[in-house]
Design goal:
Length: 270
């Protein structure tokens, strides 16, 4: 059986894609930055209206959580306090919208690969800082039945994020892969090919951002407009038992159905 595709859409874009979303149990990721106080309040006030928009959509609901302007591995306890607040605002939004998954960004930077090893216990200390930042939010997420998924950003080692997730041993922290980010790391950072990110994640993988690119920038092009090895990617996905949400995430939201059609015509997903 072919996997079913979903999409990342902002609130005002759901109506345009409603019929496509409801034709099958398609997963929906509500895009937007939930870490700004005014927007978080706006989501709360509109939650009832949003839930009515989602009526008839049978797939799983998630959000892209706050991520701009703060690291998950800060050494500064005051910065960590701000991150705690933003993560809690994201979890508040999950509660208002009945979302069961929230995307957060990996703390791993390209600089780390050549330089953390110069520091005593550099990677171990990074993990400790991430634990200090995430542990409280993870406990709340566990209680809510919400899963946080850690998305690759500058990650060149497909296994580094997986190992970080394993140190938490929590049902509420899993792995996300953005195909375009992985392709960019492959193109400019000598990282492995995108399908190897899927292989490395294994059944820790519960979320994928599907976008196409040329390996030289984070394009978020329609599927088929770039040069990603989609057959190899879906071959690795087919081996998993974790049933990851396959979320088409494009700059041009009007190309979502075209992207789904491209994958369907090649027998990869529908």
């Amino acid at each position: 059986m072919l996997p079913i595709l979903g999409a990342a859409l902002e609130l005002h874009q759901i109506a345009e894609h409603y019929e496509w979303l409801r034709e099958q149990p398609r997963d929906l990721e509500i895009a937007g930055y939930f870490g700004v106080d005014a927007e978080a309040i706006d989501i709360k006030d509109k939650a009832g209206d949003v839930l009515r928009q989602l009526d008839g959509i049978k797939g799983r609901i998630g959000i892209h959580g706050p991520h701009r302007g703060f690291p998950l591995d800060s050494e500064d306890k005051e910065v960590r306090a701000v991150v705690h607040q933003r993560l809690n605002e994201g979890l508040d939004a999950c509660g208002w919208l009945s979302a069961t998954q929230m995307v957060i960004h990996s703390p791993v930077k390209a600089w780390y690969y050549e330089n953390l090893e110069n520091l005593d216990d550099g990677w171990e200390r990074l993990q400790e800082r991430v634990h200090l930042t995430l542990s409280t939010a993870l406990k709340r997420a566990e209680e809510m039945g919400v899963e946080l998924v850690l998305e690759n950003i500058e990650d060149r080692d497909p296994g580094a994020r997986v190992r970080l997730v394993e140190t938490f041993d929590s049902v509420a922290l899993k792995v996300s892969i953005d195909t375009g980010h992985a392709a960019y790391a492959h193109g400019v950072g000598n990282a492995p090919a995108v399908d190897r990110y899927v292989r490395a994640a294994g059944n820790h993988l519960t979320h994928v951002h599907l976008q196409d690119t040329d390996h030289f920038a984070d394009r978020h092009w329609a599927i088929g407009d770039g040069d990603l090895p989609w057959s190899a990617i879906f071959s690795e996905l087919s081996k998993l038992k974790s049933n990851p949400r396959l979320i088409i995430e494009l700059n041009d939201k009007s190309a979502v159905s075209r992207s789904a059609k491209w994958l369907s015509e090649r027998g990869l997903a529908h």
